[in-house]
Amino acid sequence: MAQITAALIKEVRDATGAGMMDVKKALTEAEGDIARAKEIIRASGIKAAGAREGRKAQEGLIASSVADTAAGQTGYAVELNSETDFVAKTDAFVELGDNVVAAVVAADAQNADAVLAAATEAGTVKDTIDEAGALFHEHVKLGQVASVSGPHVEIYAHRKSVELPPSIVAMVATDEAGAEVAHEVALQISAMAPKWLTREEVPADVVASEERVATEKSLAEGKPEAIVPKIVAGRMNAFYKEVVLLEQAYVKDPSKTIGDLFKQVGGQALAFARVEVGKGEDAE
User: Fold this and answer.
1) Coil, strand or helix: which one is 78?
2) What angle do CA 276, 92, 78 make, to 5 degrees?
3) Which of 1, 26, 194, 263 fits a disulfide with 40 by CB distance 3.0 to 4.6 angstroms?
4) 81: domain CATH number?
5) How far is the C-alpha of 283 from the C-alpha of 159, rounded, in Å?
6) How far are the Cα atoms of 103, 220, 284 from residue 272, in angstroms, in the given order?
7) Which domain holds residue 136?
8) How far, in Å, CA of 61 to CA of 161, rounded?
9) What is the rounded CA–CA span in Å between residue 133 and residue 136?
10) How many structural domains comprise the chain?
């Protein structure tokens, strides 16, 4: 039997927000398998003891830009984190974001390492960020980095309040025809936070996990085993409609999907990205 250590319990609690006893029970049932323990907690309908996002969220901004390329356009989004929103909303921090994204565009930097190495007046983006930390007397760091490319790229930058810089940036790359609805789709991405473009892009392990959770929930609810597969299929369709962009209901007209919007103009979505302050995997 696997040893249920304090470190294992902490990791699952941080990820799910569930209480200690619920986590320990799930880990015991899962024989120490963290991923399986998370599934058990979800299947059991255990409520979070506290929102993980709230504990790990940081302040800062998302700087973004679109650049013309030989093949069309590329959109870039870069997260810069500070410790307080007081610093994040200053003109100097906003200027820092503008300078960093300009360096990213110039270098066509599309991952964190490339961004940190991009050239700036101070030397590199890393040097610029380090200098900013000294200036603001706060820990300033690079967060998430995203880029999308296609014939047309649309960016929507969302501010949670007028005095704060953008905290969410949604980008969508489309073909030329799809550009007609690209702004509406960027708004949708910002508001509804899809994770994948099509259901075919959903990783197999995610699908398998969702199917297990749906099956266990159905059985726990006392549904007859003979109809459980049909119930699971329905729940999987609901899952796809929540996390797949082209299957999401259009927020301004729920009778249509985002896929329908593209069909109406004979266009295609090629890729998208959504970056929100404090929501990266490495946020602390």
Assistant:
1) strand
2) 30
3) 26
4) 3.30.479.20
5) 20
6) 22, 37, 25
7) 57-197+258-276
8) 12
9) 5
10) 2
